[in-house]
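Before relying on records like the one below, remember that each one covers exactly one chain. Contacts with other chains, cofactors or solvent are not represented anywhere in the record.
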Amino acid sequence: MYIVWLYTLFIIMEISKHELAELLRVRYMLESLENYGVDNWSWYGEAMSDDGEGTFPSANDVYEWEDDKVIEELYDKDNN
């Protein structure tokens, strides 16, 4: 179990590793859409693919990762 702090409410809750990984996947997908400037379905596919330079993994790739890798790559680096 991972402990997730919700700073605005000061609530501590436990979620499973899988739930945490799913939340991280969705956050990554939404950040990809936002960073690409997608405000309609026309550019959805481009936003889900890589950045063209190989700097960041594509959102589609992140959905294929095992839960442990998602947590290591997207959570642990943000919270250390």
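The mean pLDDT is 76.
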